[in-house]
């Protein structure tokens, strides 16, 4: 719990008071568990995630040159580092590196990262979602954190399509907060077409992330094959180029699979990547797999 990004001294102090009487009749382990439960319950009641998010480090293998974005992300990163301010909308298919770029920026800039998703903010109570949005921006500002809002389309949908008044007030609230925010705000979405026009104008840059180009897929494939100690025949490279909806996320998924199912050859690695393509909705719609030549 000590690593929880939303854990503030007031929550810890309150929890300590609640479990204080247990010290006289319980073991230290039981007291520690009770303390964790009380802090978790308090955070949950505040509309915040109960458990800390344990991000795996990106590591030295993270590369901007394998992001298929419609602008130079190294230049964008340099601008963020120089000004420590900016509002970015990153959009495109899942797994293309939008969230990972936000995490990478925080590591380069040596700033804390605050990640929020719809489930962290949306409340069934009238006015609470707007309050949670305001709290999100205020906390990020106070902590000088890079604010990453995943599933941003949940709050930035076109108001012309709204059926309930609260759908409009939520958009109004986040637009007002964006206007005043002085730090780095990164919103990611897979549903760019549904965003409100006024919201789009608030972003300094709107950057599309797309499926890997063949040369980028080859770089990631060769890097993974080297880590796994696999030889790569030329024929494999030619077949790899036929997979046209690969993403960095696919490579990450396959690498995680090796903890449960080892990969013995470059051919097997290729088949695992092909399977990732096949299960994606984009792949089904576009007939992705090994295309005929």
Helical coverage, percent range: 40-55%
H/E element sequence: HHEHEHEHHEHEHEHHHHH
User: What is the terminal-to-terminal distance?
Assistant: 54 Å
Q: Provide the spatial order of strands within the biggest beta sheet.
A: 1-6-2-5-4-3
Which architecture name of the largest domain does CATH use? 3-Layer(aba) Sandwich
Low-confidence stretches: none
* SS field, number of helical segments: 13
* Biggest sheet record: 6 strands, mixed
Topology (SSEs and partners):
Blueprint: H1 9-19, H2 28-45, E1 68-69, H3 73-83, E2 86-91, H4 98-109, E3 113-116, H5 118-121, H6 128-143, E4 146-149, H7 165-180, E5 184-189, H8 197-202, E6 205-210, H9 214-228, H10 234-240, H11 248-257, H12 266-279, H13 281-286
Parallel strand pairs: 2-5, 2-6, 3-4, 4-5
Antiparallel strand pairs: 1-6
Describe the protein in words.
The chain has 293 residues and is of the alpha/beta class. It folds into three domains: 9-45; 64-210, P-loop containing nucleotide triphosphate hydrolases (Rossmann fold); 214-286. Helix content is 50%, strand content 10%. A six-stranded mixed β-sheet has the order 1-6-2-5-4-3, sandwiched between helices. β4, α7 and β5 (184-189) form a beta-alpha-beta unit. α1 packs across α2 (28-45), α6 (128-143) runs parallel beside α7 (165-180) and α11 crosses α12 (266-279). The longest helix is centred in the first third of the chain and has 18 residues, at 28-45. It is globular, with a radius of gyration of 22 Å.
């Amino acid at each position: 719990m000590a690593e929880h990004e939303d854990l503030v001294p007031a929550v810890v102090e309150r929890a300590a008071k609640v479990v204080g009487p247990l010290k006289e009749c319980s073991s230290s382990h039981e007291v520690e568990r009770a303390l964790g439960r009380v802090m978790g319950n308090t955070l949950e009641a505040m509309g915040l995630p109960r458990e800390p998010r344990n991000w795996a480090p990106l590591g030295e293998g993270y590369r901007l040159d394998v992001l298929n974005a419609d602008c130079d992300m190294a230049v964008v990163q340099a601008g963020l580092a120089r000004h420590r301010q900016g509002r970015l909308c990153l959009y495109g298919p899942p797994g293309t590196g939008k969230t990972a770029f936000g995490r990478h920026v925080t590591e380069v800039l040596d700033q804390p990262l605050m990640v929020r998703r719809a489930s962290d903010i949306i409340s069934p109570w009238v006015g609470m979602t707007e309050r949670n949005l305001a709290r999100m921006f205020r906390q990020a500002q106070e902590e000088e954190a890079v604010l990453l809002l995943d599933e941003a389309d949940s709050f930035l949908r076109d108001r012309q399509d709204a059926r309930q008044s609260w759908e409009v007030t939520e958009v109004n609230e986040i637009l007002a907060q964006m206007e005043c925010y002085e730090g780095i705000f990164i919103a990611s979405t897979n549903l760019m077409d549904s965003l409100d026009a006024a919201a789009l104008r608030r972003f300094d840059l709107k950057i599309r992330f797309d499926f890997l180009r063949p040369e980028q897929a080859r770089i990631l494939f060769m890097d993974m094959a080297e880590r796994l100690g696999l030889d790569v025949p030329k024929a494999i490279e030619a077949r790899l180029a036929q997979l046209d909806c690969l993403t960095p996320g696919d490579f990450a998924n396959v690498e995680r699979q090796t903890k449960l199912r080892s990969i013995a050859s470059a051919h097997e690695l290729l088949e695992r990547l092909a399977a990732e393509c096949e299960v994606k909705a984009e792949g089904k719609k576009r007939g992705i797999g090994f295309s005929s030549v």
